[in-house]
Protein 1
Amino acid sequence: MNAQDFIDLIGSAAQASAKATGVPASFTVAEAALESGWGSSQLAQQGKNLFGVKADPAWQGDVLTLNTREFLHGTWVMVPARWRKYADWQSCMDDHADFLHQNSRYAPCFECTTGAVFAQAVAQAGYATDPDYAAKLISIIDQHGLADLDGGV
């Protein structure tokens, strides 16, 4: 799937989530693109899981078991992992937004009204260990005109 097809596929769900949760649609689509390889990951295709969210013991929904690469005892190994499986893109995005709302360290992010600024705030709050995470998201937002999705909210 190419980038525009992916944006067309999930854009309206991201906008609906933005209306309900305050997470900018441009941020959601950019992060989904980065985390799922533009929807090409096995996890996205089989589980509608765009953000690589594992199914912890508190998860009450469906589960998909797929192998993942983990660094254990000084070496990379493939191990089975339980992932959250969603019925549709909307459920995935709403769950992701709930995660951000439920963790107080992300509270300042919701003062941000653009996807780019939201991405910077999320990164500053420690969302990812990649020091270039916000820059990668902002690049996707800019390169694909995703800020336009925020105008429809």
Protein 2
Amino acid sequence: MNYERSAHVAASPERLYDVLSKAENLPHFVPQLTAVRELGGDRIEVEARYGGHTHKGEAWLRGDEARHRVEWGVDGTSYRGSFEVGPDGDGARLVLELTTEHEHDFEADVSGTLDAVRRLLESEV
């Protein structure tokens, strides 16, 4: 299943990319994540709560500052996603893409993440 949504954020594209590209910020706007720990290179360890259970695992997180794009995924699965940031009037346009093989409806999760990013950044303005 593929999901793509976008939102306007009242922050500069540079500031938005800076926040999104730091692994330690992920639990602030990805509702399921309860902890993230950098392992070195592009590897991270995540702890997430969904389906009434806590799950731990490794993933990768890669930032491309020139493109203002952050990508993530889990090796050996089809789960992957990205944030792409661009200018949008007086702020930034954030595009969130998510691909997963799970049958869970991620629509609320994707919308919740976009809303959380927007609230986090706009509270600083």
